[in-house]
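Example record

The entry below shows one chain as it appears in the dataset: sequence first, then structure tokens.
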Amino acid sequence: MEGTFREQLFFVVLCLSVLKGDTRYIEENEITPEGLFSLLNSELKREIPEELMYSRPLQCLDMVAAEGQFTFTADRPQLSCAAFFIAEPNQVISVEYDSVDIDCRGGDFIKVFDGWVMKGEKFPSSQDHALPLMERYVDYCDSGTVRRTVRSSQNVAMVFFRVHTVGSSFTLTVRKPINPFPCNIISQTPEGSFTMVIPQQHRNCSFSIIYPVEIKIAELSLGHLNDFPIKSMPGCAGAGDFVELLGGNGMDPSKMFPVADLCYNINGPAQMKIGCDNTVVRMVSSGRFVNRVVFQYRLLDRQELQRIKVNSVEDFCFSG
């Protein structure tokens, strides 16, 4: 019951700030949060025997947290639809087109996006994703006959679709393969722990928690400090390897406020309360070293948020 409540809370928070859409792809997005409590329920996490495949209809606005087969059938023209897919932190999303009956020439489309888009902001940000933005959109009408399966780079993905004709339909099979080195993650819950490791790769990784939380850094190991003496670097300026804590009310880490920069090793707890709608732990790696950060997070209660708000001198959101 507790896990189900967390999933519902996550989706409620998500939908209260839900997309106004990327106007290039969803030009008339008027989706509202009405009735969204029923979209993510206990059956999404139901244990399904391996020999059976979970299946259910796909809604015009939907959240999918389970592997299975999902079918959308238009009962009226649906011009602005989006389905959010989310997996565990150490998984990615695989979307396979099983059957598609839409009119591409008539303006219908199905587009898989490698990440999430909300209110025009994208996760992961362009700074943190290996692909150029346009390559993160895969249009069935352009590539469906030759590319039947699309795989995300992280634990979240989206499907945008538009269908004009009643009776048009498509079926997707969603799987969640293991990702041995997860990078760029959205947490499904407001509390938990995670270990992020970047093994000598020049990349940036963000762990996003769409809640106001307390972050506790239990361990931070930056490889460059094993070979070079620690230097005083205000704001970690010039450091090629560091961790930053970010806060904000949008999805894009590059548009969030830097709360703290960490460019030194930590072997004991260091904690901070961030009263933002979205909190991000972001690691920047030069690729020359193995970097590792271990952290825990928990949801702030109303009294904590109120105290932070009263005591905070920042106006971006509340930190303490």
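Notes for this example: Helices lie at 2-16, 140-143, 302-311. Residues 2-16 form the longest helix (15 residues).
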